[in-house]
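FIELD: query
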Amino acid sequence: MNEKEQAKKQHNNILLAILGFIVVVVIVAAIGFFALDRDPEIIQGQVEVAEYRVSSKVPGRILELRVKEGDYVHAGDTLAIIDAPEVRAKMQQAQGAEGAAAALELMAKNGARREQVQGAYQLLQQAKAGLEIAEKSYQRVKRLFDEGVVSAQKRDEAEALLKSSEAQVKAAQSQYDMAVNGARREERMAAQAQVDRARGAVQEVNAYIGETVQTAQMDGEVSSIYPKTGELVGTGSPIMTISMMDDLWGTFNVREDQLQGMQIGTEFEAFMPAFNKTIRMKVYHIKDQGSYAVWKATKANGQYDLKTFEVKARPVEPFEGLRPGMSLVIK
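FIELD: result
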C-alpha cells in the first residue's frame, strides 16, 4: 500500500470516529430526554380563613377582656367590656329631657289647673251678673224715654252699657271654655312630638350603652387581641379579630399556562406538608391578578405574555387540624 492510500484510509477512519461520536452523543441525549424524569412544576398556596373584627361605636377605656387569643367563642358570648362615662352622662340628660317632655304632654292633655278653671268660672258669673243689671237698666231707661221723661242720650248710654256687658260675657265664656277644654289640638300634638323625640334620644343612648359590652356575632376562634386592659379605644377601633374556623379555603397564584383547563367546579389534589398528606379541593373562585406585578414577559423569546390568576378552592371534605397559614402544594 502506497503512502497516498494510507493517508486516505486514515482520513476515512477519522471521519468514521467523529461520526460515531456524534451518533453516540445523540443517542445518549435522546435516552436522557425520554428516560429521565423531569422535575414537575410546583404551585404553592396557603390556607386562609374568613375573619371579622370586633369594634365599638363609642370611644372608651377597656375595662375588662373576657377572652384571650386562641379561645373558641360562640355567638352571644361576652368578649370585652368598655368603660364610657360620657355615655352614662348622656343617658341622664336624655332621661331628664324625656321626663320634662312627658310633663308638658300631661299638662297639655289635662288642660288648666282646677284653680284656673274655677277663676274663669267666677269671672263668667260676674260678667253674667253685670249683663243682667245692664239689661234691667236699659229696659227701665227705654221705658222712661218712651214716656218722654229722659233724653235720648241717657237711652243710648244704657244701650251701650248693655252691649258692653254682652261682650264681656262672651269673652268670659271663651276663657272658661279654654280652661275647661285645655290646650289646642295642635299644642297637644306638639307636646306628643316632643315626648317621641325625647324617647328616641333615650333609645339612641341605650344603643350606645349596649356597645360598651362587646359580644361575639358568630362562632369562631380569637386570633388577635389589639388593646390591653386599661387602654383607650376610639370609635370603630378594632378590639379583636375572630376567625371563623368552619370557613377555610386555599389560595393559589397560578400562571395561565399552568391552569390546564382548571375552572370553577374543578377538583384537584393538594399536598399538605404540615401533615404529609394529600387533600382533595374544589375550585370556587378564579380571578386575574392584574398587570402591575404578575405578568411574565415572553415576547423577547418570540412568544407571548403570561398572566397570573388567583385561584381559590375549598376542601371537599373537612380536615381536622387544618389552620390558616398552612402551605398547600399542587404538582
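FIELD: remark
The longest strand covers residues 238-255.
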